[in-house]
Design brief:
The protein has about 375 residues and is α/β, with parallel strands linked by helices. The chain has 13 helices and eight strands. It has one domain: Alpha/Beta hydrolase fold, catalytic domain (Rossmann fold), CATH 3.40.50.1820. The radius of gyration is 25 Å and the shape is globular. The protein starts with 16 loop residues before the first helix and ends with a helix. The relative contact order is 0.13. This is AB hydrolase-1 domain-containing protein.
Length: about 375
Amino acid sequence: MAVSGEKRPPPPAPASGGTARKKLILALFICFSALLYKQILQPPLPKIAGSPGGPPVTATRTRLSDGRYLAYLEHGVPKEKAKYKIIFVHGFDSCRYDALPISTELAQELGVYLLSFDRPGYAESDPHPGRTEKSIALDIAELADNLQLGLKFYLVGFSMGGEIMWSCLKHIPHRLSGVAILGPVGNYWWSGLPANVSRDAWYQQLPQDQWAVWVAHHLPWLTYWWNSQRLFPASSVIAYNPALLSQEDKLLMAKFGYRTYMPQIRQQGEHECLHRDMMVGFGKWSWSPLQLENPFAGADDDGQEGAGKVHLWHGAEDLVVPVSLSRYISEKLPWVVYHELPKSGHLFLIGDGMADTIVKSLLLGDDHPSSASALTASS
């Protein structure tokens, strides 16, 4: 019973028609957005090798501590007899079969064991949904441990694998005896890159690649859709646009473009290999290679010739990865040994004898007689 004189609270006002309509519109927008993301923007689940409905496992694989598997391939002399142990990191749209093509004669002469592997999401290595620029460096260190390569090893990386070399120098420098960085992809947003250097390199890309890279950096959640839709031209690198081939690359393309195992490379889904490569490589890094210090300064090279060096190789006619970023980085990091090949494009690695030249330079040093003669022939 109400006490006389007590003021009662006013009854709640009925919802107005305008408020109800706003709520309905908001609910419809949320539903539409969720449906749009699920049907159009969300990448399909990967077809993991060895899983029900996925491709079969044909490679030798090793299990990492988080349960993922990496597929690998061994080359050269047996690791138990090797003087030098090299891990090769393949580039964009490639796999373990795209290993550093050193000659059998050189491997035997120098005692080289070479290990190549499928990076996460490629061919028969499990995807890594949480992949970062750091995680791949840790994967490489764990791979070396699983295969008992010892405390230290050499690294060679090509293209997108070349960019990964910077991450290895940052995160696992204590595991490295020497590094060769070949035609590395560069991130246009790395701190320390002057605006004019980054801008000039940016505009050396085709316009459609500028858009694809911009999306991967600023809107990574749209990377799958952008490279799958048909409204606008997507990445020309994914499409193998011949406009990206230098004169030398056109001659070498027969070796690279018609590999019998190409269907295996993307078999788990393009998003888990190609798109994640773009999202990580062109993503927002918390550091820059320009901030690195010489990881081999004052280090003991264990008596091995040429050890403890970082070699950076780039073709001056590279139309896939602008050479200007490598030029600038090598100028700012005086401990990097820079080799620019004046007539070469992006695929210089598979040119006749080039892999042997790179390995001699890495393992023996540029002053060694066999390295010096090979470098003269390649320039």
